[in-house]
TrEMBL record, chain A:
Domain Nitrite/Sulfite reductase ferredoxin-like: 52-111, 346-396
Ribonucleoprotein recorded as keyword: no
Single GO term (MF): heme binding
Protein's name in the database: Nitrite/sulfite reductase
UniProt keyword annotation of Oxidoreductase present: yes
Domain Nitrite/sulphite reductase 4Fe-4S: start-end pairs: 119-272, 408-547
Keywords per UniProt: 4Fe-4S, Heme, Iron, Iron-sulfur, Metal-binding, Oxidoreductase
Organism: Bradyrhizobium australiense
Automatic annotation (TrEMBL), chain B:
Origin: domain of life: Bacteria
Pfam family name, one: DUF934
Name of this protein: DUF934 domain-containing protein
Organism in which the protein naturally occurs: Bradyrhizobium australiense
């Protein structure tokens, strides 16, 4: 965990007091709605279909049990008793009252949580691997760098009014769980030939109506130079990014229009003039941030404790363990994913009671720490293997042990037309119906890893382009239709899915997905060949044939 | 529109001269960029201070030869959502060493004061009287700053390092 010091706490409180003043000026009419809109967005407040929506940052996906309890409190006290975890390590509350927002923020500030820059045209919450610091084989804990960047991007005096939003993600593992290739800046921590730590810097990734996979702009930027290099990119973007058309304002369009080589030259030219500046991080500064991350005092535990051997006789436990428990870098410990995708439930939602209970379980079994992943699930990062059977029972009672992590029912979905004023179509009911269709665990397990992503409009908050199966809601003559893509992925081999044919009406979506999955089961050359690999091998044609032959 | 300078509401000594309008014989003037670049010498050598209003879509590099003779540069925020002038301000102050008046014009609201001041602005043509009145109070809103800029404010990182040094020195 990262421990905020007096300075971090002071800044958060100062922001709360500023926002309280902004809300007061809006309520008194001193600020117009147009003026206030920008100010509230800078602090995570959207106006949705039915109410204000409040988005709170969970930087790099790390939460303490105390913080999670406070999120539960906000859900209960100011909202309708639940919250929604998003694809960018944020949590959203959907029914907040404007007049009460400053108090909610103030309650969160007491535990070091804020909503700064969770929306608006600024540098958004810096995200990272939800397994940071515990995944085996990591270069180093990417949260140290995430925190350095979190501080640097918070209330930045030059880059708080960018052409458009700007998202940074960091990974330190070979397998990218942070989806860095679909971010404005993606940072991959690695070591150069001299054993020095630095970053491969990628730029210009993003989804929305013009999706791009990020391109490498520099294969290695030394850790000490990362702030100046990021600042050089931002400065070029702030000056030359398009501001005439909101749909062409992201950095991906600038990179595309200039070409990566020319863009890289512009950035290098800027960087050359600022590289030896106050932004250079010396060892002591990095160590200072590193020193404020605390790690659990792990015990020396056996790889295979008796408790686990005994529990292995219970097929239900085994099913869950095989699905939701991942290897930890320390022997005797595991990383446990808590599925927020129960059959028939809205993906990513958790009730206040569930949050409180997870906080208690984290205290009991995970050194008080919880993680939030972009797949809209939670994780307990430090569970002793001997505790797994007990933890499973507790999670099962809470409805948080659905053994569907990474399976067809582990669906990523945006809030869609049920909440969002931008949406063309509903997302949540599609997800709910699909979880019912594939509710049989043996079937889902036999299908294997398969990511379905649903967005209710072209803005792509559900990341449909990079779903193994992507579902995009569109509107046709006042009716909800859905375009289906297949073969997308968000990991280190990120690519966009390919459209299989004409959009299908709401009522047929689940049938179409079933057809696609059946086609895959018939086409895969062995059970281990994942859906996305079968699509890669065969292309979309056979799937297209199957879906449209009878429609 | 009130002008805030050195933290106080003050009289604007600069006369805004529109394109095509006649230049007054003396006194301080602010002229549009295009007019300035047409004949910089004519404007710089007259009696009275010279300032230029610089658009946010033109590189400040073009101004560099004249910086030591310019008394004021006014940068423009067509709307407060358009943040290009923050970069121009930092470049003028931090890269090119400009030390004359740097004025924020356009849609300037109290919620930008701290950002603007950190980027190097020291004069503000404020849209609303109430915001101008609240200037001093607004500038006190923040005491912690994460980024090093040319404004001289000590960053949180530096304060922590100082704290560490004094702690270890005391041991």
């Amino acid at each position: 965990m990262y421990a905020y010091d007096e300075l971090d706490r002071t800044l958060i409180n100062e922001r709360v007091s500023e926002f309280r003043d902004q809300v007061k000026r809006r309520l008194s009419g001193e600020l117009t709605e147009d003026e206030f809109k920008m100010l509230r967005l800078q602090n995570g407040v959207y106006l949705q279909l039915h109410a204000y929506m409040f988005r709170v940052a969970i930087p790099y996906g790390t939460l303490s049990s105390k913080q999670l309890r406070r999120l539960a409190h906000v859900a209960r006290r100011y909202d309708r008793g639940y919250g929604h975890f998003t694809t960018r390590q944020n949590i959203q509350f959907n029914w907040i009252k404007l007049a009460e927002l400053p108090d909610a923020l103030s309650d969160l500030a007491e535990v070091g949580i804020h909503a700064m820059q969770t929306s608006g045209n600024n540098m958004r919450n810096v995200t990272s691997d939800q397994w940071a610091g515990v995944a085996p084989g990591e270069v180093e804990d990417p949260r140290i760098w995430s925190e350095i960047l979190r501080q640097h991007t918070t209330l930045h005096p030059e880059f708080s009014f960018l052409p458009r939003k700007f998202k940074i993600a960091i990974t330190a593992s070979e397998h990218d769980r942070a989806a860095i290739k679909i971010h404005d800046i993606g940072l991959r921590l690695h070591k150069n030939a001299d054993g020095e730590t630095g970053f491969e810097v990628l730029v210009g990734g993003g989804l929305g109506r013009t999706p791009f996979i990020a391109k490498t702009i520099k294969p290695f930027v030394h850790g000490r130079d990362i702030l100046s290099y990021v600042e050089a990119i931002l400065r070029v973007y702030n000056q030359y990014g398009r501001r005439d058309n909101i749909y062409k304002a992201r950095i991906k369009i600038l990179v595309h229009e200039l070409g990566i080589e020319k863009f890289a030259r512009e950035v290098d030219e800027e960087w050359r003039q600022m590289s030896d500046s106050a932004l250079t991080l010396d060892h002591s500064v990095i160590d200072e941030v590193r020193s404020r991350f605390s790690y659990p005092a792990y015990e020396k535990l056996p790889h295979m404790p008796d408790e686990l051997k005994q529990a292995a006789h219970d097929p239900l436990f085994e099913r869950w363990r095989k699905n939701s428990v991942a290897p930890h870098k320390v022997q005797g410990y595991s990383i446990v994913t808590l599925s927020l995708k129960p059959v028939g439930g809205p993906p990513g939602d958790a009730t206040a009671d569930q949050m409180d209970a997870v906080a208690d379980l984290a205290d009991k079994y995970s050194f008080g720490e919880i993680r939030v992943g972009h797949e809209q699930n939670l994780a307990l990062p430090h569970v002793a293997k001997r505790d797994l059977p007990q933890l499973w029972k507790a999670l099962d009672r809470l409805g948080l042990a659905t053994p569907n992590v990474n399976l067809v029912t582990d669906i990523i979905a945006c809030p869609g037309l049920d909440y969002c004023s931008l949406a063309n179509a509903r997302s949540i009911p599609i997800a709910q119906e699909l979880t019912r269709r594939f509710a049989n665990h043996d079937t889902a397990d036999m299908i294997g890893r398969l990511h379905i992503n649903i967005s209710g409009c072209i803005n792509a908050c559900g990341h449909h382009h990079v779903g193994h199966i992507g579902i995009l809601g569109v509107e046709k003559n006042g009716e909800e239709f859905y375009q289906i893509t297949i073969g997308g992925r968000a990991d280190e081999n990120a690519q966009m899915g390919v459209l299989i044919g004409p959009a299908v009406p709401y009522a047929e979506v689940a049938d179409v997905i079933e057809d696609i999955v059946e086609a895959y089961l018939a086409l895969r050359d062995r059970p281990e060949e994942l859906f996305v690999d079968t699509v890669k091998r065969l292309g979309v044609e056979p799937f297209k044939e199957r879906v449209y032959a009878t429609r | 529109m009130p002008l805030v300078k050195n933290g106080r509401i003050t009289t604007d000594l600069f006369v805004h001269v529109a394109d095509g309008a006649e230049l007054p014989g003396d006194g301080a003037v602010l002229v549009p960029a295009a007019r300035f670049l047409e004949d910089p010498e004519a404007i710089l050598k007259r009696a009275g201070k010279a300032g230029v209003i610089w658009p946010n879509n033109r590189a400040v590099d073009d101004l560099v030869p004249y910086l030591d003779r310019l008394a004021a540069i006014a940068l423009v925020f067509p709307t407060f959502r358009d943040g290009r002038a923050y970069s121009q301000a930092r470049l003028l102050r931090e890269r090119h060493g400009y030390d004359g008046e740097l004025r924020a014009t356009g849609q300037v609201l109290r919620d930008q004061f701290v950002f603007m001041s950190r980027a190097g602005f020291d004069a503000f043509e404020v849209k609303k009287n109430a915001d101008a009145d609240a200037f001093a109070e607004t500038m006190k809103r923040y005491s912690v700053f994460y980024q090093p800029t040319g404004d001289g404010r000590v960053t949180a990182l530096n304060r922590r390092m100082q704290l560490r040094h004094s702690e270890s020195a005391g041991q």
